[in-house]
Every structure is written in structure tokens, then in C-alpha cells.
Prior knowledge:
alpha+beta, Chorismate lyase, 9 helices
Amino acid sequence: MLVDPTSGRPAYQQIADELRRRIQTGALEPGSKLPTEVELMSEFGVSRVVGRLAVGVLRTEGLIYSRQGKGTFVREHRPVRRIAGDRYRHDLAQIKRHGVPDLPKGTSFTRDHGITWDQYRLDKEFQVIPAPPDVAESLDLDPDLGTPVLQRRFVFYAKDRPQQMSWSYYPFDLVRDTPIADPANEPWPGGNLAQLATLGIFVTEVQESVQSRMPAPGEPRTLAIADGVPVLTLARRMLAGPHGDRQPVEAANIVIPADNTALDYTINLE
């Protein structure tokens, strides 16, 4: 089809409209390759610049992503169900049922995404740093002392697609010279709850605060999302101990693309 010069819409927007229609109707399925610039020039009778602008519209909308040297592909938009509360109760139940050494290979992340252990991987970077002010506050540390914490930066992948970033912090005195401080042990079946259980620490409360924002520099590339796709941020604290005397043992900042994430909450009022 050729663009209509009498429509009142710029040619690149007309092409973007047509490609968007194909994506929304399934004519271009998730994971399928978008026509190249040369193919767009031939099909729509436009210049390379116009075809490039049309593709840029879809990229900004988060409908497509590019792989260097391979082309541009339709993004998969499948909601991921994160069940606040239930997901951690499941992990704790597994620990109590099996014990940490015999835990099934899985985490709340693999269950959220419906993937097997071999379809899950992490990029990881560990270092010991003075507690940043927000982390010191979350862990009830004196912000003026620069107390050392173990910072663990993760990028989570499901079937080789990046899905989540996190910065996780433990008081370093808590995990010094333990398997938790060794990145070779990641990914760890059972996640953070299982790691702490190896130290005899059982989490009794999880606090999460959720906000939305536009992605910070570098996040779109890491998460393979368009600049215009918002993200959800979760500030998390894990606490251990009896009610009334619970102490924070872990703090984390988590970043997730907002366009394929659903936050489901069950609030029991009984």
C-alpha cells in the first residue's frame, strides 16, 4: 500500500499506524521481525528517512525492540503476575517443607514468569560499600557512620530476555565470610529467604513500596525497553524476629518494566 498524501497525516505516521495495526491484530506476532527500511521504502513508496521515522514511533511506544546486527522485532507483551505477600509465603513454605539444602530449583521470579530453572539466569555484580543514606535508613543503620553493606546488583533474565533489575543490600557483618557473599552461588534456589535461612535468620515481615516513573539513563538498554516505556520501582525491606522486635536484615531497590507487569494484591479483612 502507498501512503495517502490527502489524509492530513504525515507519511511516517501513516506507516506507523499500519505497522501498529499489524502488531495489534497479530499479523506481526511477538518475536517476529519488522520489515527492514528497504522493505518499507518499497511497500509504502517513501524514502529511507520516512521509514526510519515510522519505526522510531513504534520504538518509542515500546512495541518493538532492536538487536544490533539482527534487526528489529515485535516485543512480547505478556503480563507477569506479582502477588505481594503470597509469593513470599510460598517461598517460606518451601523452606519449611524441604529445608534449604533440598529446596526445589526455583524462586518467586521463575514462578512469576512461568519458566524452568534452566531458562533463568542472572547478571551479577557484588561489592562492599558504605551504606548509602537510603539504604542506611532502610536497615536502621546510622547514616553518618558509613557502615559497610554488601551491595548486589542483578539483572534477571527469563528465556534470555531481561525482565528486572535490582540492587540488594545486606549488612556486611551479617554475611561476611558466608556463601551469601559469594556471587558464584547465584542464582540461589529459594532466593533471599533461603539465603537468610542458612544463617538461621527467618524473615517474618516483608515491606514493599511501589512507585512508577520514567526510566533513568541506561535502564532502557539494560531492560530492552523503549525510552518511552515507564518502569515500576519497588523499595523492599525484609525483617526478622518476633512481632514487636523485628529487625531489618535486607533492603532492595527493584526496577521492572511497567508495560508487562501486573501487581496483584489480596487483602484479607477477616
